[in-house]
Amino acid sequence: MSIILDKEYPVETKEQLVKSAQFFNKYLTRFRPEERVKIATIIDKQSQKLGVNFDYGWITNYARMFKGAAVSPDLHKGISLRKEAVRRHKVKINVDGAPVSPEEFLNSLEKKAQDQMDQPMAIIKNLMTFDKAAGIEYLYDREIPDPIFTVHGGLNNSEFDAVKVAGSMTQYDVIRATRNKDVVKEIGRVFGEKTASAFSKNPFQCIQKMNPPEISKLASIAKK
């Protein structure tokens, strides 16, 4: 199924965005991994533009691909699940015309991945190549995570790469705060409209100009 968000699934208004996001949240497994990245990236961008927060971990996980994010701490688990799958389904693969043990091949991929942690696209391509050769793509979302999710997704925590950037607030808390009109309005009341506007446009730059007491106050407002 092809994706044309601006025609088939409009996201120009809040109502359209919410409706489309709910649809994808329900039927995400119908779409290919690369389509999920496109969907998540567009919804994430529109969410920031329209001031809408979604509690859908897949948006964070798939939108992460183009944000220069670190490799998931669950990479080993994703590869282990593949080992279990190839054993269960008695998968056989050939490399250059010769039979190769799928588990040994996965071990070599994992070793290569550990050496390429700063090159997530290379890891994704290796996993895609293996999954296709092993014929296990049909197991995505059932027994194994797809290559993109394996590399960039958190199996138990979609915000695994969260770091505190403002008091007790992580970068994700900050982004959510910019999308909350009540929070921005309260920031304007406490710090002034100029600061509220700056926070909405570039929250991290705005925070860098604040002193510790101001950051603490900002965090208390955002976490209410």
Quaternary status? single chain
User: How many distinct domains?
Assistant: 3
Distance between the termini: 41 Å
Q: What's the number of extended β-strand segments?
A: 4
Helical content class: 55-70%
Helix count from the secondary structure assignment? 12
Question: Structural class given helices, strands, pairing?
Answer: mainly alpha
- Catalogue the unreliable spans: none
Instruction: State the order of secondary-structure elements, H for helix, E for strand.
Output: HHHHEEHHHEEHHHHH
Beta percentage is: under 5%
Which of globular, elongated, flat, extended, rod-shaped describes the shape?
A: elongated
Major sheet description:
2 strands, antiparallel
Radius of gyration: 21 Å
Order of adjacent strands in the largest pleated sheet? 1-2
Mean pLDDT: 92
Secondary structure layout plus pairing:
Layout: H1 14-27, H2 33-50, H3 57-63, H4 75-88, E1 93-95, E2 98-100, H5 102-115, H6 120-134, H7 147-152, E3 164-166, E4 169-170, H8 171-178, H9 181-191, H10 193-201, H11 203-208, H12 212-222
Antiparallel strand pairs: 1-2, 3-4
Helix pairs in contact: 1-2, 2-3, 4-5, 5-6, 9-10
Supply the key terms.
224 residues, mainly alpha, 3 domains, two-stranded antiparallel ribbon, 4 strands, 5% strand, elongated
Structure characterization notes:
The chain is mainly alpha-helical and 224 residues long. It has twelve helices and four strands, in the order H-H-H-H-E-E-H-H-H-E-E-H-H-H-H-H. The protein has a two-stranded antiparallel sheet. A two-stranded antiparallel ribbon has the order 3-4. The mean pLDDT is 92.
